Amino acid sequence: MGWATPDASVRWITWVFDLRHAPRTPISTTNWGNLAQKSAVSHISDRMRHWDGIDAVVGIGTNLFICSLPFCCCPQFASQLSLFWRHQQIPLNSSASSSTTTTTSFCAPSTGTSSAERRASSATTFNCSIASSTVNECAVMIVRRQSEECTTTTTSVLTDRGNEAGTSVRRSSRKWFGCCCSFRLAIVVLMPLLPIAVLLLCYLLLPSSVDRSEKPIAKDKSPILEDPLIRLPTDVLPIHYELHLKAYLPYRPAQLDFGTKNMTVDGHLRLLLLCRAPTDVLMLHAKALSIEHAKTAIWPDEMRQPGPRVIGCKELAGGNDLLELKLDKALLPGRKYVLEMDYKAKIGKAHEGGLYSGSYTSEDGEIRLLAATQMQPLDARRLLPCFDEPSFKADFSISVQHPEGTTVLSNAPLAHFRRVERGWSLSLFERTPKMATYLLALTVSDFKHKETSYKHVTIRVWVQPSKLAHTEHALEVTVRSLEYLEDYFGIPYPLKKLDIFGVPFLRVAAMENWGLIMSRQQNLVYTEGVQAKRERQFVTDVLAHEIAHMWFGDLVTMEWWDDLWLNEGFATIMGMKAADYAENSTSRTSQLFYEHTVKAFRFDQIAHQAHALSYKIGSVREVARRFDRITYLKAAAVLRMVERTVGDQMFKLGLRSFLRLFAYRNARSEDLLWALSTTMETSNQRNRAALAIVNFSLGEFMDSWTYQTGFPLISLKPARNASLLIADQEQFFYLAPVAPNPSRWKVPLFFDTTTANETLWLLENGPVTVPRGVLIDSNAHGYYRIQYDNETYRALICTLLTNHTQIELATRARLLEDAFTIARAGRLPFSLVLRMGEYLPAEHSYLPFLVFNNHVQLVLLLLRNHPKIEIFRQFVQQMLEPMYQRVFSTNVPLNDLSDTMREFAMIQLCHFDYAPCVNKSLTAFAQLKNKFFMIPPELRGSIYSTAIRLGTANDFEFIRRKYFAEEYDSEKGRILSGLVSTRSIELVNSLINEFFVDKRAFEEDFYGFLLKFVKSPILNQIVEYMRHNFRVFANRIRHPSIMKVVLTYVTKWMQSERELEELDAFERENAIDLRDLRLLAYLKELRMEIRANIEFVGRGAVQIFDFLDQRRDRKTAADDVDEAKTADTPDWCQWRDNRHEESFVLSWHHRQIAEFNFSQKSLLLCKIHMSYMRFIIPPALFVVLLAFVVLLDATGMPKSGMCCCCNSAPAAPPPPSSCCGRRKRQGVLSELMEWERRVSCCTATGRKRRAIGAPVSKRLEFWALNHFGTKMF
């Protein structure tokens, strides 16, 4: 990133940070100037603030801008700062550009000045004007003082050929004099605006309702860790890897055998290095490599003469995979060296990473082998000695000698292919762009491909020959995703080709290697009529996510793994956008709240699973743990909140700027935030409603979400003023942590309508007030849970039961999700939650059913032994039956959504033994057994499960044989779901025996079978088997992360003290194996969840069954009266409060909050007590301030005036002639005079007030509500 220029005579170091774009992404002069002029200096200085000894940020040069060079000196010139300013230009014509040099000397005494005195010293500024036509490079200088000796330095400024030869102090004085004159003239012009400035100063300085003193968030953004063995030193940098491999892969084991060399690789590495600081030790990463020390050598790059000798080569202990090369003499700074090594590597197993092997069965029944790589996160070191960290980007030139008959793929296009000797071929690849080692990719196989092209890019999908015909969808998705992402980012895909390779085995779903995406083969093939629409969508999602990584992760790479959330979060959110575009759909966008936010909540609300998005990594082992739901899903949810905060357009422009600035480089999260902030500052279309009205930056906003664990619960409670609610925040954990955490966030409370999008900020310093009747975050963009007060919940339930479409789909899903979770945490009665769910028979959308079902299934599992459990099962079935009848009616159009809902309805209703569903399943299964019968793919899983659960041993054997004869992986997964649904103990034992004893059984879908196994009705038998045969179980799996998944599902259903005691006994009996798998600590965490289950069974069961008993009594009473009128409407919904604050819930969406909008003066006047304002500033001053706002208003004061409202809530709708029915024409002053007397207001007349149009008015209005609203009660 930078380099140092030492000078022995003056003993100073100038650090120059190069901000040039990569050659592929040139930047225009105008754009670069806008970015650099205002923000670059402060951004760079902030990033370097943690360096010791930095005295000043000297300057930044830009085209057509005045560049100031500050020299901070005390009055006695006690210290000296040496300056170096470099400005490179490209002339417009081909002729060489001459330059002139201006020299200025400074001298200072050598001693006697402290750093504090230097900071307090005065500053002298020398201005120089740079005029050039094109700027290709701009540099920022940071001065680090090494001594305080009196020296004289020279500052040279290169100017364009058209400038005069030299710049003198006299000329600088003239310029300064001209600036002073201009300044005096500006003062004269601006003097009349002084009163306005005073008013705006009051805007900034007025205190809030609560003390604004905030404690800074504890964070550590430094990528350098205390343990030097975790990170490599930066004394030497890699520039280029030249790697030659010979792979001994017997891809046809029956015909090919290399003897003892089978499944090994011979490697030869030539690594070009740049020395930055003198060192006689080289540190690299290497793991499971056999290095030939005698052939390891290093020499200067520019000459083939011997350099330093390698006198020692050893692997360091500590588990950090470090290889230390000791040299007989030090490398010289600024010189390039070549390191040459010969070594041997192994072709390992899929779960190990590096270069691993897999197998598949050809069409003629032959077992064939292939080899592929999985380097992320830390496994490139298994293939070659390297600098295996994301920040050490370098180029790669790869050549591979491989068995004849196989094809080799790598990141770059194939440059040359030839046969070198009998039975061997050689593939040489072009040089890659600069990239991280974890993106290096290689495959050796006899797979075939289908090919297409998009613009200049060749696109190929590689699979085993028998599945080649099913890759058309993958090709189409790839082309459409590239098209969307190129347009969104404004940067073309930078490589010549994109290969997508389908691997039978992969420890992750897919991997974003640059130019060679790896994916599980089942995620690349799709056949219409054989696979469900949901499975097609999954293929699209996987590919779109990995293609999004071609920009986020590959083109711009995180600097260290603590910013992994940046890579994965953006790939997740951009992958969803690209997937919807690829399928010309909006289904994913409509479910982002569930797919990202809700799924992230389920991990982030459990204390022992939650972690911050970015936190310090203490060991190499912790890197792999970063790849979890929080890193992927919480990151996407938080970024979606940021997108809503800054605005869609600003978000897109900021990402474009970020990608251009850091292309082919590394970046940190603050670099992204700087790019977004700079884009907002320099754009005329910035979102003023969100960040423009607050006194903190986008970076400060994001820090509270990036460096803190968990998320807030926004609770709303009644205020003394009936028209307001008090919104406050606290950290939410479903399982309370041992010690309470005072974490607080900068929370944007969104109010979205079709006419306006407003944001109210809930900050760390205390609560704010919001109007009663306005739903927060109706489109579910915020990463927080919301708990309304009981009165609001009742009004919402009334709306849901009478006309649920008045509330947005995302809000309906959010209400159910938050209410169920909060109730399970003991903070909300279950009766209210289940009452809310009673509207579902009228629901037509899929998302609320999905949320509801996830929660009730867990309740059913925990209460399975309760004597009244059948009553709850009947309640859930009644909520789902209308959906089943609706989706299977003849007039329902067939599309992706209806297919998904049909699949969901079949699975759930058959599970409840709903007669129409069971009959449909058994009939279809019988037809499938007797003759060929095409069952719709989305229904097969439910049909198999129902038939096996209710069928015979013959049915089980039929479906088992079908599994081993099946070609399609997706169909095998559905059959597995059926097999594990059996209730027969004998059949359970046969499954367990096949799974754990015969390792060949279910080998192709080992982990898929395991997950289905632990989710099945035979879970009790599996637990019993685990307890007595854990050694066999552990030897079969041997992977801690997979074992954690198994233990999670096994303990999820435990809900009694007896079962907790059984878990304790299990731990004692298998302590050694559990310790070896690093699972003892995890079992302690699971005990907390079991304790919560026990508490829920004791508390929640009473509430649930009391509600169900009352519901049964209410239904019985309704039969004697008029069921149509009262059966589904609670008593408190029969009379509706006609106050504006209460009745909004019934019509807030259709009115679009037009009569209750934040951008109305009436709300501002009604929501702020004049009596409170008198304690802060004189009332007259505040009246003047408001009058000034009105004068700025483009639309003026509404002529209809403020609604004359009653001071108490009416008992019935007010007549037109009443106080609230009349509309008085009042002026500004008369309204202000009646402000104190008329605190409440209503809009019973239904007339829309005219909104304030001026942005300043809106910002001041929100500011006033945020600052003074909380003191109204």
TrEMBL record:
Domain Aminopeptidase N-like N-terminal: 238-439
Domain ERAP1-like C-terminal: 774-1070
Source organism per UniProt: Globodera rostochiensis
Residues covered by region (Disordered): 94-115
Database matches in PANTHER family: AMINOPEPTIDASE, PROTEASE M1 ZINC METALLOPROTEASE
Family: Belongs to the peptidase M1 family.
InterPro entries documented for this protein: Aminopeptidase_N-like_N, Aminopeptidase_N-like_N_sf, ERAP1-like_C_dom, M1_APN-typ, Peptidase_M1, Peptidase_M1_aminopeptidases, Peptidase_M1_dom, Peptidase_M4/M1_CTD_sf
Name the UniProt record assigns to this protein: Puromycin-sensitive aminopeptidase
